[in-house]
């Protein structure tokens, strides 16, 4: 099996050996019988250390991203934290983009910086500034790349930044949450690790919270695996099952998300009251060519800046009928949010602050005409 859609359905999903069930059972056990002291069956001892349902998801994730191993966690931030703690030490440096998920910045700035880690924020689309930020980097340095970014949809050249990061001795990590492994393959472009909030497109149905990391190096993968076991922020069996079920339809969903988002973006570009549309699928987007080179499609996320300022933005998000005002993204239903006071409230007043006239849309898989009509009627209000 070599094609993505086939692997999304079958990787790690062997029918149950006992019953022949096409869908493997959910193993909700906390512990496992031993046939003698230390004589474990298939290596299973206690579910913090290993669980067949979680293992199946991890096998699937590693397969789809082309990694040697993957680990699933209770949330995207738990996954990011384990990845960072497995690599960093006091005196280390994290170079991060100036437009990233607010929770990622908060994690490093509020938890890792007090531990002795230096945080440097830079525009990842400016390679010269990235090089400058990596000059004199300590032995333990992480180049944290998010592309497309949240919420201003900036695009970073993964292959180029991987070269720049490796030349400086840095570990290159790509947050691939917005794109998903179907649209973008960071490991094949040179990255060392990929992180996900599996809550988003991988789960895809707004019914599970989770995170994952996928690694290309076996030695580092073992370190992350130990953090998963030692700290214990694991995905539960049921959450792992829901995520696996969601991934089976990832390719068809991402195609629909992308085509719907393209239509909404194009409709908003010429709509009255719109100052700017942030979507890499638009030909005038500054990262359009790079995105077209490294992505299979442009995804379901876009943002829009309104000429009427904060008040217009708030009225807009409160006036949609198909789009639901809520945090999060990547579900089959369309969501809309006001980042500066919702998803990115933690970076308000910092260099990562989101403009107060910006609205973020997670375009779902509903009828395209209904979605376009909804944003236009909301603007008219």
Automatic annotation (TrEMBL):
It comes from the Bacteria. GO terms for molecular function: cystathionine gamma-synthase activity. CDD domains: CGS_like. Signal peptide: none annotated. The keyword NAD does not apply. The keyword Ubl conjugation does not apply. Keywords: Pyridoxal phosphate, Transferase. It holds the Pfam family Cys_Met_Meta_PP. InterPro entries: Cys/Met-Metab_PyrdxlP-dep_enz, PyrdxlP-dep_Trfase, PyrdxlP-dep_Trfase_major, PyrdxlP-dep_Trfase_small. Its EC number is 2.5.1.48. Its cofactor is pyridoxal 5'-phosphate. Belongs to the trans-sulfuration enzymes family. This is Cystathionine gamma-synthase. The lineage of its organism: Bacteria, Bacillati, Actinomycetota, Actinomycetes, Micrococcales.
């Amino acid at each position: 099996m070599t094609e993505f859609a086939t692997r999304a359905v079958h990787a790690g999903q062997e029918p149950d050996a006992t019953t022949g069930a096409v869908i493997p059972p959910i193993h909700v056990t906390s512990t496992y019988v031993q046939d003698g002291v230390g004589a474990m069956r298939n290596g299973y001892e206690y579910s913090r250390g290993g669980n067949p349902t979680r293992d199946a998801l991890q096998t699937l994730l590693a397969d789809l991203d082309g990694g040697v191993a993957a680990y699933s966690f209770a949330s995207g931030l738990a996954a990011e934290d384990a990845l960072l703690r497995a690599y960093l030490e006091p005196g280390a440096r994290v170079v991060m983009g100036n437009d990233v998920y607010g929770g990622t910045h908060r994690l490093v700035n509020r938890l890792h910086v007090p531990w002795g880690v230096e945080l440097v924020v830079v525009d990842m689309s400016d390679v010269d500034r990235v090089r400058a930020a990596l000059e004199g980097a300590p032995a333990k340095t992480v180049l944290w790349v998010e592309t497309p970014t949240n919420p201003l949809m900036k695009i970073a050249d993964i292959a180029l930044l991987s070269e720049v990061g490796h030349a400086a001795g840095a570990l290159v990590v790509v947050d691939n949450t917005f794109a998903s492994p179907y649209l973008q393959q960071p490991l094949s472009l040179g990255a060392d690790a990929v992180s996900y909030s599996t809550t988003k497109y991988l789960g895809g149905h707004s019914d599970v919270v989770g995170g994952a990391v996928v690694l290309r190096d076996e030695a580092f993968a073992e370190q992350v695996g130990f953090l998963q076991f030692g700290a214990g922020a694991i995905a539960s069996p049921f959450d792992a099952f829901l995520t696996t079920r969601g991934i089976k339809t990832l390719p068809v969903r991402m195609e629909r998300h992308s085509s719907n988002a393209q239509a909404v973006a194009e409709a908003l570009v010429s709509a009255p009251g719109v100052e700017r549309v942030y979507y890499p699928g638009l030909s005038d987007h500054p990262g359009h060519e790079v995105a077209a080179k490294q992505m299979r499609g442009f995804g379901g996320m876009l943002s829009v800046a309104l000429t009427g300022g904060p008040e217009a933005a708030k009225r807009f998000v409160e006036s949609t009928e198909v789009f639901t005002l809520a945090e999060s993204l990547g579900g089959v239903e369309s969501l809309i949010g006001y980042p500066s006071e919702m998803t990115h409230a933690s970076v308000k007043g910092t260099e990562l602050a989101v403009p107060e006239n910006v609205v973020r849309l997670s375009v779902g898989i509903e009828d395209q005409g209904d979605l376009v009509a909804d944003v236009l009627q909301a603007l008219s209000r």
